[in-house]
C-alpha cells in the first residue's frame, strides 16, 4: 500500500506530454480581483522584496506569475536556476531530466537535492524542493527526458527554455527545438573552475548555438563533471545568472538588457568575469540560417555527434581499443590472480588526484601519461620476469591503453581489470568508494 501511495504521490509531481499542462490545468496567476486592499496579502509578503524595485514592481510580478519556463537538467545548473525562479514566483516551472537518480557525488553542487534523497528521481526531487520553497506556484517534473521526437512539443508548451544540461546531444536538440518554436534559450555550462552563460534569442540577429558551433566537438574533447571534476559554486554562479536573465526576459524591467549576442565567461580560479561579443546569426546555419528549417524529429543527432550519445568517455572509446582480450580479467578473476600470485605488481594508472582519494591495497600509482617514461623502472620492480603486472583504472578504458603499451614493451604477463575499479566495486567489494 505504501508503494502505491508513493507512486500516486510521484505521478502528482510529474506531467506527461499531451496532458496540456502547463498551458491548461495550472494554478491561477496573481490577481487583484475581489481583493479589498490590492494584491492578496500573501503575494505582497512573498514577493515584496522584488516588487519594491521601481522598474519591476507589481507589473513585473504579474508578468512573472503569468509565465511558464522549462528547466532542462536537474543538476548543478538546474538546481540553483530553478530554485531562484521558484522563489521569484514564475507561475509554472517544468523540470525535465532524463531519469537520473540523485547520487551522493552530486550534492557538492546540486543543492536542490539532499542526502536523504539519494537514489530518488532527480526531476521529482527538485520538484519537491521547489514546492517547499514556494507552494504558490505550479511545478512539475518529467523524467522521460528530451528526444528528437518529443523536443518540439515539450518546448512549445513553455514561454522560455533554460539549457542546464551537460552534453552536446541535449544542447543541439534544445537549440534546434527553440529555433523552430521561436523560444528564447537561456544557456549555461560549467566544468572545473569555469563556466559560461548566454541567451539565444530569436530577435536582434542573435545567433543560435549552431551558428557558434556548427560542428559537434569530437567526443574526446567533451568534458564532464563526472570525469574532470567541478567546484560546486561554479555551476551555482552560472545557474544563478541563468535565473537572473530569465527573470529579466520574462518581466522586462525598464532599463535592463538581456545577455543577447554576448556571452559571459566566468573563471573561478581568479574570479574573473569576461563578456565577449558574439557573432551575428549565420545565414548558412542549418537551424536558423536563411531559408533553413531543420526537421528536429528526423535529424540524425547521433550521426552528427559522431555516435556518442553523452559524449562521455564511458562508452565512446570502448569499442575502438585494440587490446588483446586474452589479457583482460573480470573483477573476480583479477582478484583471484592477485591473491594467487607471489608479489604481483599492481599498477593504478588513474590521475594522482583520484589515486589519493581511494585505491586498492598495495597498488602503485603510475598515471597513464607517465607510464611510457616508467617502463624501465617497472621492469626493475618485477621480482621475476614472470611476475604478473596487474593494471587498474577507474572504468577499464585507460587500463586498456596501459595494457597495450605494456604488451608492446614486452611485458608478456600484464593484465587489466575489466570495468576498472567501478567493476571491482560492483563485483568484488561494494565497500570500495564510488565516485
Ligand atoms: Zn543558427
Automatic annotation (TrEMBL):
Give the subcellular location: Cytoplasm, Cytosol
Note whether Magnesium occurs among the keywords: no
Read off the InterPro entries from this record.
MOCS3/Uba4, Rhodanese-like_dom, Rhodanese-like_dom_sf, ThiF/MoeB/HesA, ThiF_NAD_FAD-bd, Ubiquitin-activating_enz
Main location per the UniProt record: cytoplasm
What Gene3D superfamilies does the record point to? NAD(P)-binding Rossmann-like Domain (3.40.50.720), Rhodanese-like domain (3.40.250.10)
In alphabetical order, the GO MF annotations are: adenylyltransferase activity; ATP binding; metal ion binding; thiosulfate-cyanide sulfurtransferase activity; URM1 activating enzyme activity
Which SUPFAM superfamilies does the UniProt record give? Activating enzymes of the ubiquitin-like proteins
* Domain Rhodanese per the UniProt entry, residue ranges: 345-433
Q: What's in the GO CC field?
A: cytosol
Biological process terms in GO annotation = tRNA wobble position uridine thiolation
Highest taxon of the lineage: Eukaryota
Which keywords belong to this entry? ATP-binding, Cytoplasm, Metal-binding, Multifunctional enzyme, Nucleotide-binding, Transferase, tRNA processing, Zinc
Write down the HAMAP family for this protein, in alphabetical order.
MOCS3_Uba4
> Which PANTHER family is this protein grouped with?
ADENYLYLTRANSFERASE AND SULFURTRANSFERASE MOCS3, UBIQUITIN-ACTIVATING ENZYME E1
What protein name does the entry list? Probable molybdopterin-synthase adenylyltransferase
In its UniProt entry, the species of origin is given as: Compsopogon caeruleus
